[in-house]
Task: structure prediction
Amino acid sequence: MCGILGGVWKKADNSLEERVKAALLTIQHRGPNDSGYEITPLHDSRLVLGHTRLSIIDLSSAGHQPMYSQDRKYSVVFNGEIYNYRELRRELGALGCIFRSDSDTEVLLAAWQYWKEASLSRFVGMFAFVLFDHEYGTITCVRDAFGIKPFFYNFEDGNIIFASEIPAIKALKNSEVELNWQRAYDYLVHGDYDTNEQTFFKDVLHLPPGHIIRYSIATGQLTEPEPWYTPRIEERAELSFADAADELRERFLTSIRFHLRSDVPIGAALSGGLDSSAVVCAMRHVEPEMPIHTFSYIAKGSSLSEEYWADQVNQHVGAHANKVVVSPLDLIRDLDDMISVQGEPFGSTSIYAQYRVYQLARERGVTVTLDGQGADEMLAGYSGYPGQRIRSLIENGEYSRAIRFLRNWSKWPGRSIKWGIGSTLGQFTSGKLNDSLRRLDGRTNIPEWMHEGSLRDAGVRCENTRRQCPVDLRGRRLTAELSASLHQRGLQHLLRHGDRNSMRFSIESRVPFLTTKLSELLLSVPEHYLISDQGETKHIFRAAMRGIVPEEVLNRRDKVGFETPERDFIIQNSDKIRGWLKDGVQLPFLSSDRVLREFELIVEGGRKFTPQVWRWINFYRWHQIFLG
Result:
């Protein structure tokens, strides 16, 4: 786990090296153990490859980057882990490759030397890397299938700049960064972020998950992002539930074994829910003697607390439990740091719990943690995606079954018939009809605290596009939505939260659910294996984990997760927040006076509390930190 940066400058001035050094400092937390950079003159350009290292596998200096292939044809800067590097190393050794280190980075280079882009499908891991071909003068930028590891880039006037985090992009750019108005609108009005290649900074882009771009130094041409991985969602109807559960169990345990490979201490983030509990219990199952340290956020005195469930799992596996309790004052104290670390606005204060969990892991001397992220998007978790499932049944002509499903689904805690019907209607509506339904719920595309004219003049699309699923497969609407959530939207902001929060404390967060072998299996099973006709989410996974996870946990009907009592935090700190909002931001499309008036009504109880409040606070503070 590391940080990478660099680029190609056609007309580099004498300040380039100082900018590179400054940029490396902005990502030093991602790799405090080592750093390095090279500036290479090529044609009339300069190529920069820079790296900061968090030593996880092969702690020696042999893992230093930039690293060269054995034949010196390739050099690379790499962020991530290749968990199956030992297996690949043996395979490459049989082909005649000689290794000088035990580093997975050297395995990546050797794999590329022998298999080129075909090596990507062989990797089990998380990665973002830039590889320079010295013979052809090209750089290749790659991001893993799920986008676990970040990759930002900027392309202007034939120059390309890339980095693991946006502050490094800012340090490397010759010009100032500007606000992307479209992303600001999407976030403030619709809570939409990290769902496409656009960032909150104009002309700074994400490389999409599972994509690759190439840049020619000689021509200054950059290719459009191309997918190197495309998920398959066709149904394997011949696969019985029992066989699918057995296969899922084996693939999950294999993934856990891979993710436990480390030369530094390992622990796990434990919320108390099924996903993180399964990770911890599987760790014990595959490593009976391994010391396990768990790290949990506890919402003391709140109905959101899951301490009881975390205790059950800790007792079951004999783990060393580490817990953190936070207060509203803690959040205010750390808020600016968390906003700075995240780099862009985010959805709620719930990620503060995660921030503190990683801080606790660092304090306890743990460098690697396993996390349950991605399971909900893979297994139809959360509320079970009722609208998509019902639409699949309707499209398959199973009308009675759809009605029975809705009735059974609505009986679970936190659900209702009304919610299920609304979710289903949302599947069959779009455009103006969808906007009309939103207005009935008190929502609008142009709230009173925004100036429509300024937005329209700037070419901002004032509409909600987040609902539209980019994958269209009749009768497999649930599976299509899960596939989109895993690889195109939904999961991306959660992975961003986890990456930035963990790296803030130089922790490598691993996500064993997110392997292509696991996702391809689960995207191929009949939809009722994922959410049963009785409305049980993660149906097949619960079956697969029998005998590994305690029955009490498997049979839970509620789930809270890493949530904080956000309303209490905000109301109790309303005086300080009011000052932030009064300072305002000078943007033509935003009326700070009206935002403040709305906030006062909510604090006084005249308006209901909604996630909108946090989005105001977050955007204002973020803008003041990064663009103020």
In short: The radius of gyration is 24 Å. The chain has 26 helices and 17 strands. The chain has three domains: 2-227, 241-379+488-555, 566-627.
